[in-house]
Specification:
The chain is mainly alpha-helical and 68 residues long. It contains two helices and two strands, in the order αββα.
Length: 68
């Protein structure tokens, strides 16, 4: 599979894809948005979350990671 570079990814699409994936595991990042300060960098702002949400996010990522 070809590697995707920053120039290939629309930040709005990336943010919505992430929002949808998080929603599937019951996680909401209220500040998730595209950073308007430097559009050429195509940054997605994840924002701040409570500690319990960070732990749920970590668990969801760990459960989805392949075992070695």
């Amino acid at each position: 599979m070809a590697e995707t570079t920053a120039q290939d990814v629309d930040p709005f699409t990336a943010a919505e894809s992430l929002r949808a994936a998080l929603d599937q595991v019951g996680i909401v990042l209220p500040s998730l948005s595209v950073d308007p300060a430097a559009p050429s960098l195509r940054l997605v702002e994840l924002g701040r979350v409570r500690a319990d949400v960070a732990m749920r996010l970590a668990r969801a990522l760990q459960q989805g990671s392949p075992t070695t």
